[in-house]
Design brief:
40% helix; elongated; single chain; 2 helices; 53 residues; two-stranded parallel sheet; alpha+beta
Length: 53
């Protein structure tokens, strides 16, 4: 069966619209769970700030 949601360390998640709003909140939630992230957005400065957080 699948992995428990509290153990995402080997999971890679692609999130579009990750520079604000729901996309940013989703990225932060997956990052807290240890997933690797691929963040996509149109605003380079904003996405870099999210990636640093």
């Amino acid at each position: 069966m699948g992995k428990p949601l509290n153990s995402l360390g080997r999971l890679t998640v692609v999130i579009t619209g990750a520079s604000s709003g729901i996309g940013q909140a989703t990225a932060e939630a997956f990052a807290r769970q240890g997933a690797s992230l691929v963040l996509v957005a149109r605003d380079r400065d904003a996405i870099e700030a999210v990636a640093q957080d």
